[in-house]
Amino acid sequence: MKFLLVFDFDHTIIDENSDTWIVKCAPEKKLPNELRNSYRPGHWTEYMGRVFAYLGDNGVKEDEMKRTMTAIPFTAGMVDLLGFIGKNKEFFDCIIISDSNTVFIDWILKAADFHKVFDEVFTNPAAFTNTGYLTVQNFHTHHCAKCPKNLCKRKVLKEFLDKQGVGYTQIAYIGDGGNDLCPITLLKKDDIAMPRQGYTLEKKISQLSQDLSPLECSVLVWSSGVEIMSYFKLLLKE
């Protein structure tokens, strides 16, 4: 009996968007209008590259960024859930597929000592240059018309499953955003989608049912990680 848990990061594991939270480091905690208005739909990573360049130009250093990022609160019940998974790792493979970046996720998980819970993290690669600027790149290229240019989570999940070659008892996908819908369409009838209550993913899933093209998998809406934990506790008892 082995379960695969697939987590989104922003607004799922943490209760904020890590990319917008970093703006707290900017002068007066805001970005100039021309920078804010430079975002084009589907090109978020390039936009964040410009944000990081602006922070670097304004002398924001790595340690200040790290202090700011590790102060982000976890979503309700997530600390309990991740603690439970960590204690039961023999039953759970656990991955993150996120549109954040490697530096932010690494900082946050390590500060809370949760990095060992996750087997792999798939997100946009980021690094500091020798001049102290944070840079970020697209995770991969893909041909999915539904997803942002830098990341199709379905492609990531499919490649992970192909590489694992494991028949999981169940795959659970835990997320909140519109870009979590594409990977969920990969799930089969024994699997479960777990959209966060009141967020875009829940609305998109209910829209599918109204359009008479419901998902193959079952759906459990959650508002706290404790609800997800209770579900898995029951499964392990069976």
From TrEMBL:
The keyword Metal-binding is assigned to this record: yes
Cofactors, names only: Mg(2+)
Keywords tagged on the record: Hydrolase, Magnesium, Metal-binding
InterPro entries: HAD-like_sf, HAD_hydro_PyrdxlP_Pase-like, HAD_sf, Pase_PHOSPHO-typ
Sections of the chain in a coiled coil: none
Binding residues annotated for Mg(2+), in chain numbering: 8, 10, 176
UniProt: substrate binding residues: 19, 99
SUPFAM superfamilies recorded: HAD-like
Annotated active site: 8 (nucleophile), 10 (proton donor)
One Gene Ontology molecular-function label: phosphatase activity
Domain of life: Eukaryota
Family from the record: Belongs to the HAD-like hydrolase superfamily. PHOSPHO family.
Annotated protein name in UniProt: PHOP2 phosphatase
